[in-house]
Amino acid sequence: MKAPTPSRSRADASELRPPPNSETPQARIRLASPIRGKDPAPSSSPVERAPRGIGEVPAGDIARLSRWGYYADFVVYPVLIVALMLLGLWRAAPGDTTRWLLAACAGLSVWTGLEYVLHRCLLHRLPILRTLHESHHHHPGALIGTPTWVSAGLFFGLWGMLEKVLAGGAADGVVAGLMTGYLVYVIVHDAVHHRSARHGSWLYQCKIRHAQHHRPGAHCNFGVSTGFWDTVCGTAAARQTGSN
User: Fold this and answer.
1) What pTM does this model have?
2) Could you tell me the end-to-end alpha-carbon distance of the chain, in angstroms, rounded to an integer?
3) pLDDT tens digits for 143-180?
4) Less crowded by CB within 10 Å, the N or C end of the chain?
5) Of 177, 220, 182, 194, nearest to 141 (Cα)?
6) What is the dihedral of CA 133, 228, 185, 50, to 10 degrees?
């Protein structure tokens, strides 16, 4: 009598990948976190696998943050943005309020471009930052990010320089706008990896876009809060033709 074949373990099953072109493009995308009503299939790649809850990284990984350190941005930046807004409006002369608001809008718009450039040119190309960023790609559900004291320090360094060249509280407005853009980026990036989304929603589309960026070997979709600059620079997934 033929002995029964042992059942394949889940780990072995996850290594089985369908042949190329056997799936639709959307089916080949492994979402960065579960989507409401959708349960992504297991994947052999830690980049593609949908994390269940908050992921873990090796204890020695210097990119790892504590829960308090990871979520500090969600508390600190709203306070800093409001403080800069009050400071700018308090220092503004009559008629400068409009200038402050325009400066804030300019800062917010500039952030979208900075987000793209920093992600594409620094996090994926500068050796030391690329090494740290790879931890996030290998553990997308883990609490990995930039410490608040580092990002806030950079913003205030920029604020100090702009104070010397911009008048009428414009420096306050520009930096408040930049911080607002950064806060939006942090919130969206966290939601992409740790929150569920209804099929067809805006967050669902963000998840699809960012999951394509996390695919092994992908060089596309560097924007997180918006895909505008990927479209402009030709790095949107649908238009990608090679390495960037």
Assistant:
1) 0.74
2) 58
3) 988 999 999 999 999 999 998 888 767 899 999 999 99
4) N
5) 194
6) -60
Hunting for tokens 């414009």 — which residue is that? 170
List, in order, residues 6 or more apart from 63 with CB less than 8 Å away.
57, 132, 133, 135, 136, 144, 145
**Contact of 219 with 243, CB cutoff 8 Å:** yes
In this prediction, residue 19 has a pLDDT band, given cuts at 50, 70 and 90, of very low
Compute the distance between CA of residue 22 and CA of residue 3 in angstroms, rounded to an integer.
33
Q: What's the rounded mean pLDDT across residues 42-57?
A: 39
- pLDDT above 70 coverage of the chain, percent: 70
